Amino acid sequence: MKRVLIPVDGSEYSMRALEKAKEIALAFESDIVLINVKDIRFPLYPYEPGNVIDMGATIDQLAETASKNAQRILDDAAQVFEDIPGDVETFELDGEPGNRIIKFIEEDPDIDLVIMGSLGVNGGLQSFLLGSVTNKVLHHVDRAVLVVK
Predict the structure, then answer these.
(1) Is the pLDDT of residue 125 over 80?
(2) Which residues contact 43 (CB under 8 A, 6 or more apart)?
(3) Which residue among 74, 109, 120, 145 is least crowded, i.e. fewest CB within 10 A of its CB?
(4) pLDDT average, residue stretch 105-113
(5) For the segment 28-77, what is each residue's pLDDT rounded down to a tens digit?
(6) Does domain 3-148 have CATH number 2.60.40.10?
(7) Per the database record, which ranges form the UspA domain (predicted)?
(8) pTM of the predicted structure, to 2 decimals
(9) To 10 degrees, what angle do helices 97-107 and 133-140 make?
(10) Cβ-based neighbours of 122, under 8 Å, separated by 6 or more
(11) 98-118 b/e with 16+ CB inside 10 Å = b?
């Protein structure tokens, strides 16, 4: 497992995935790829995902806040891997998280393993009603996926 991808969203389960990824990175001297997907769509229903900050916010304000949050999440995640022998890369992406993660994996043939938390920041009721990002990725990629509870 030379190249390991961890999508991060700042949730408790995402942090658990980072810890498991660090164990693997230390054991196999893996390179780490961290991605955060900014989803700034406005939800139509209360259980839909989206980072709605303020209904009066402009799109530019919304995008700027989402970028700041994404960078903070990526910086915090990268700190977990400060002492590993491999390289650590971070990517801030835009779009619907499940589809964007799948596309990223498809575009990088060197990714050997994907490690994800079982629930993200929009877990709970949304996951029950709509299915989770993890479930979508798990069923639509041709790489090994480790789901961390």
Answers:
(1) no
(2) 49, 50, 52
(3) 109
(4) 97
(5) 999 999 999 987 765 554 554 555 445 556 777 778 888 999 999 999 99
(6) no
(7) 1-149
(8) 0.83
(9) 30
(10) 49, 133
(11) bebbbebbeeeeebebbbbbb
